[in-house]
Amino acid sequence: MANVYYDTDANLELIQGKRVAVIGYGNQGRAHALNMRDNGCNVIVGLPAVSKSRAKAETDGFEVVTTRAATEQADVIMLLIPDEKHREVFERDMLPVLGAGKLLLTAHGFSLHYGQIVPPETVDVAMVAPKGPGQMLRQLFTEGLCLPALWAIYQDATGNAEALTLAYARAIGCTRAGVLHTTVGEETETDLFGEQTVLCGGVTALIRAAFEILVEAGYQPEVAYIECMHELKLTVDLMYQGGMNHMHQAISDTAEFGDYVSGPRIIDQKTRDEMRKVLLDIQNGTFASRWILENQAGRPSFQAMRRVNAQHQIEQIGREVRAMMPWLNAPQKKAEIAEPLK
Fold first, then answer.
1. Grouped pLDDT means (10 residues each) for the chain, 342 residues
2. Rounded (10°) CA dihedral 104, 106, 112, 117
């Protein structure tokens, strides 16, 4: 079982006495910076000189400097830009001024685990990963609550990395809910596996396949969309609120029985074997290498797959069906969810 740490396990004064730099001011960066400032921390924001996020950070009242200057001036540096940008930004703007005794933090272990960032031995390196989007992190914080998080120590050069990392977790509010101790490797591999087999890859492939099968069988695509896509939120919300058993208690007995007898036919041994292969690709670095090379090549395959999926019939039908439901919020642009460097 995981060890969980709370407010009483973290000394907020440790980080209140430090200068903290948040590199990046996207969804996560803004939430981290605002929450820490509200908790009495001295926060600066590091962004490129031409960043479109500078105006927002300055409007929020932060001192905004270049990434290099922020790294040089701060005692604690949280890197909150996309994984694929870590190596370039770290080596160019951070490593030359990353003095001994500083604490370098990330909110995901990808770049550390797969060697995209190789910190000097003289600095502390750790991870604090809130388990939810930055907007929720900020909103819950303002309501006196917060998201849980995962935390890990990657390198303890000073002997104080654990205490200061927990102080950071408290500064952004996560120790209110509890922060689970893990390793950078465990967080990275489980996060990628969950995304690829369930949260993104598994779910989207399952929905498209079910939609296509119903349409091929002659059913109206609008009906297929509602049954296979739209109603998914109802089930997920029930599981999110109280787990699978809670969901089963809330749905009809017919639906529950269908779950038990048909679910194992879909997720059979062949599917489990493929899931294990996906996990192995994550563990041995095959997926990471493929993604790193894809970015180095300018993302040709990624952009092609994105275009193909955007043109699928389910997207056109989805827009038509959602137009019947004006109460739905417009989907957020990906740029608002990710951690943009620009």
1. 95 98 97 98 96 96 98 98 96 98 98 97 98 96 98 98 98 98 98 97 98 98 97 96 97 97 97 98 98 97 97 96 85 44 36
2. -60
Strand order in the sheet with 4-5: 4-5, 179-181, 149-155, 124-130, 103-106, 76-79, 19-23, 42-46, 63-65
- Catalytic, 246? Answer no
- CB under 8 A, 24+ apart: contacts of 85-94: 85/341, 86/110, 86/111, 86/116, 86/117, 87/111, 87/116, 87/117, 89/23, 89/341, 90/116, 90/117, 93/66, 93/67, 93/68, 94/23, 94/67, 94/68
DSSP H helices, the chain, are: 12-16, 27-38, 54-59, 67-73, 86-89, 110-113, 134-142, 161-171, 184-194, 201-216, 221-225, 232-250, 253-266, 269-283, 286-296, 300-310, 313-322, 334-337
Selected catalytic residue, list 86, 108, 230, 248:
108
CB 198 within 8 A of CB 181: no
pLDDT at 330 (0 to 100): 55
Parallel, antiparallel, or unpaired: how do β-strands 42-46 and 149-155 relate? unpaired
Do residues 168 and 105 make contact, with C-beta atoms less than 8 angstroms apart?
Answer: yes
Q: Which two tokens stand for residue 198?
A: 């369930």
User: What pLDDT sits at residue 1?
Assistant: 82
User: What pLDDT sits at residue 336?
Assistant: 42
- Position 141 scores a pLDDT of 98
Rounded to whole angstroms, the Cα distance separating 305 from 312 reads: 11
Residues 6+ apart with CB under 8 A from 45: 21, 22, 23, 25, 29, 33, 57, 62, 63, 64, 65, 70
Give the Cα separation of 22 and 281 in Å (integer): 32
Task: List, in order, residues 6 or more apart from 266 with CB less than 8 Å away.
Answer: 206
How confident is the model at residue 341, as a pLDDT? 38
